[in-house]
Specification:
CATH architecture of one domain: 3-Layer(aba) Sandwich
Largest sheet: 7 strands, mixed
CATH superfamily of one domain: HAD superfamily/HAD-like
Radius of gyration: 35 Å
Structural class: alpha+beta
Number of helices: 26
Strand order of the largest sheet: 14-26-25-24-15-22-23
CATH class of one domain: Alpha Beta
Distance between the termini: 46 Å
């Protein structure tokens, strides 16, 4: 099987996307097809032995749309994410085309207004024959129809090929009926048939409807284009070219031409073009776009560099290891694109309604025409009502309600280091009422650090730290690394070590700066004759009760100090847990560690419910048990030993490390290893779902109210009959309203600005 992403131009609403999707799924050899109108792309999985890519593209073109070919991609586009560029280029071309056609139609509509409305109202008095006025109106309206030809190509001719009606069908039928009827009246005027005059012409209805619809489509295309702006900003993090060394020469080449193994040169102020390993030189690099850390990271030969990051100081060379679709930016873009293509469960109803809407409305228009005609209102009245029903009953706003909000929210999340991998994840995140946190590497740093220190009264703290860390620097034990790290944190310089000796499971002995040191367990130093004061014993009991490891230090046979070492909580862990609990979410911690340590960590984090001694498979079983109680459960883990639990939960949230973000089992990936992004993901999802519900409400409300009014429901009681031109304007701007409401998500400032 093969998968292809095909950029498409010419789609004006979600109904267009559903129509293309339906045609693709009918084709033999197509396994699955999904079309995202807002992104301007179709994702197709197919069997190349049964159907070719060319045949699939022909299906799209037969439906009245244009396939954006690779040749239309801009020069130097990265291989990892070229289709977004192609779709963006197509979107710009389409908006330019819509603008030109709208302005052309508007220019023709001004004299049409003069020769129709002006003469009807009596404001303009021209003593021209009716046939002359009719011919002028027909010529102007024909020009407008030519400007809006695409509605007829997709609404009529494409329907003949595909046998599937779409939104353009309603536009073509409504405006076409008014135009054809006006030609009939014009012929009657020319032949002198009694009862027909220029006042009976409906050319202006067809013309102005198309003008308003083209205006709406243009505004909608502009607004929808903004929904993918965040994705394009992500892609722009990568430069268009890279400087590589080939055959001893420096060459500036398009980014897409960089291959694995190339030696790439990066100078101060430049962005790293692809991922790789430094081979020469050194520098400090701003990696905030990946890690969120504002402090530049020092890099030297052997260190990894990430594409899109900014070189701050020195020049360096590196060997390219991640190019094209394997770069960090390309992988992020791919995940976000897939999320934007996906559909939330709440969209299913809107999709089903949109699929049957067009034929239903066409049938309703015929019924309304017949009913009013039988009621004695005459042909013109009945036709006007039928045209109004066809025009106002637009499913575009209904279909746009969910995907536009999904596009904006996922794009915005990606810019803030949160990768939401599907629309369903957004809907699920809103409903979460239980969150289960893994301990090691998720709530905690994942490595031991010094958390407590107690020094003998007659000694200087920095002196004891220096001695202990210097001796421990000779050991490979994890607690030794914690001691060395603590010295660096305190800016304590180490001293030379001699006579080093390690006793497995007990401790070490060494000589530092002339002092004889013993470092290790209480039993070890007590066994060497070191006396331990009572207040030190009390402190050690307290630290042990908190699940911390103890490192005792003796200098020249006397106790020097006591260090408590533990896997400390990450920054903001306590604040995040508190905020979650305040929002009504039940919080648990799960770990494979022992109960004593687990309880100590949970207590310091503010978590009351703890599951300890849980192996990876058992974690998943515990998640299943929580779900069986009717709860929506989220699991937050590091994506390694928590993979099964992440996949089992209703919502898996993986804490990413550096560029290794493609955690397949998770639904949401937090790139920056920042627990506050758990809050951000949930709060943004809730806001996005709020916008989706608002969009759906107004879309349903508009159609529920609009169609009966257009059908003349109020006419018998009030004499009010909706004008087709006003119906066209209302239809056009309803879609713009929905898209604009979705774009308000960009103004939402609680990804979690107030807790940062």
């Amino acid at each position: 099987m093969k998968k292809e992403a095909i950029a498409i131009s010419g789609m004006h609403c979600v109904s267009c996307g559903l129509n293309i999707e339906k045609q693709l799924k009918r084709a033999a050899g197509v396994v699955s097809a999904s079309v995202n109108y807002a992104a301007g792309k179709a994702y197709v999985e197919y069997d190349p032995t049964v159907v070719s890519l060319k045949a699939i593209e022909k299906i799209i073109e037969d439906a009245g749309y244009t396939v954006v070919t690779p040749a239309e991609r801009p020069p130097g586009a990265a291989e990892g994410a070229p289709l977004e560029d192609a779709a963006a280029v197509a979107r710009v071309k389409e908006m330019t085309d819509l603008k030109i056609r709208f302005l052309t139609a508007t220019a023709l509509s001004v004299p049409l207004l003069f020769f129709s409305m002006g003469m009807h109202s009596g404001l303009v008095r021209l003593h021209w024959p009716d046939i002359t006025v009719a011919l002028i109106q027909m010529a102007l309206t024909t020009g407008i129809i030519i400007a809006g030809y695409s509605f007829y190509v997709r609404g009529i001719f494409a329907v003949i090929k595909t046998k599937a009606a779409n939104m353009d069908t309603l536009i073509a039928l409504g405006t076409g009926a008014a135009y054809i009827y006006s030609i009939f009246v014009m012929v009657a005027i020319a032949r002198g048939v009694a009862g027909y005059s220029a006042d009976d012409l409906y050319f202006e209805v067809a013309g102005f409807l198309l003008v308003f619809i083209m205006l709406g489509k243009w505004l909608e295309a502009r607004a929808t284009g903004k929904t993918s702006a965040a994705l394009r900003l992500l892609m722009n993090l990568a430069p268009k070219t890279a400087v590589v060394v080939r055959d001893g020469r420096e060459l500036a080449i398009p980014l897409g031409d960089v291959i694995v193994g190339d030696i790439v040169i990066v100078k101060p102020g430049q962005r790293v073009p692809v991922g790789g390993i430094i081979t020469g030189g050194a520098s400090s690099i701003d990696e905030s776009m990946v890690t969120g850390e504002s402090v530049p990271v020092e890099k030297k030969p052997g260190d990894e560099v990430i594409d899109g990051t900014i070189n701050k100081t020195g020049a360096f060379t590196f060997k390219a290891t991640r190019v094209g679709k394997d770069t960090a930016i390309a992988r992020i873009v791919k995940l976000v694109e897939e999320a934007q293509l996906s559909r939330a469960p709440i969209q299913a109803l809107a999709d089903r309604i949109s699929a049957i809407f067009v034929p239903s409305v066409a049938a309703l228009a015929i019924i309304v025409f017949i009913a009013w005609f039988i009621a004695g209102q005459g042909f013109v009245f009945s036709l006007t009502v039928a045209i109004t029903v066809l025009i106002i009953a637009c499913p575009c706003s209904l279909g746009l309600a969910t995907p536009t909000a999904v596009m904006v929210s996922t794009g915005m999340a990606a810019r803030n280091g949160i990768l939401i991998k599907s629309a369903q994840a957004i809907q699920t995140a809103e409903a979460v009422d239980i969150i289960v946190f893994d301990k090691t590497g998720t709530l905690t740093i994942g490595r031991p650090v010094v958390t407590d220190i107690m020094i003998n009264d007659n000694l200087d703290e920095r002196h004891v730290i220096c001695l202990a860390a210097s001796a421990e620097s000779m050991s490979e034990h994890s607690l030794s690394h914690a001691m060395a790290g603590f010295a660096r944190q305190k800016n304590v310089a180490l001293k030379p070590v001699s006579d080093f000796s390690a006793i497995k499971g007990k401790g070490i002995s060494a000589r530092v700066d002339g002092a004889k040191l013993l470092i290790g367990s209480q039993d070890y130093i007590s066994g060497q004759g070191v006396k331990i004061p009572e207040h030190f014993l009390q402190k050690s009991t307290q630290l042990a009760g908190e699940g911390k490891s103890l490192v005792w230090v003796a200098e020249n046979g006397a106790l020097a100090g006591l260090f408590g070492v533990a896997d400390a909580l990450k920054d903001y862990a306590v604040a995040v847990i508190q905020r979650l609990k305040q929002s009504g979410i039940r919080v648990l911690m799960i770990t494979g560690d022992n109960l004593k340590t687990a309880l100590a960590v949970a207590s310091s984090a503010g978590i009351e419910e703890v599951i300890a001694h849980a192996l990876p498979g058992e974690k998943a079983e515990r998640i299943k048990a929580l779900r069986s109680g009717g709860h929506t459960v989220a699991m937050v883990g590091d994506g390694i030993n928590d993979a099964v639990a992440l996949a089992t939960a209703d919502l898996g949230i993986a804490i990413g490390s550096g560029i290794d973000i493609a955690v397949e089992s998770a639904h949401i990936v937090l790139i920056r290893d920042d627990l506050r992004d758990v809050l951000s993901a949930i709060s943004l999802s809730r806001y996005a779902m709020k916008k989706i519900r608002q969009n759906l409400f107004w879309a349903f409300f508009y159609n529920i109210i609009g169609i009966p009014v257009a059908a003349g429901l109020l006419y018998p009681f009030t004499g009010f009959l909706l004008n087709p031109v006003l119906a066209g304007a209302a239809m056009a701007f309803s879609s713009v309203t929905v898209v604009s409401n979705s774009l308000l998500i960009k103004r939402y400032r609680s990804i979690d600005k107030d807790s940062r």
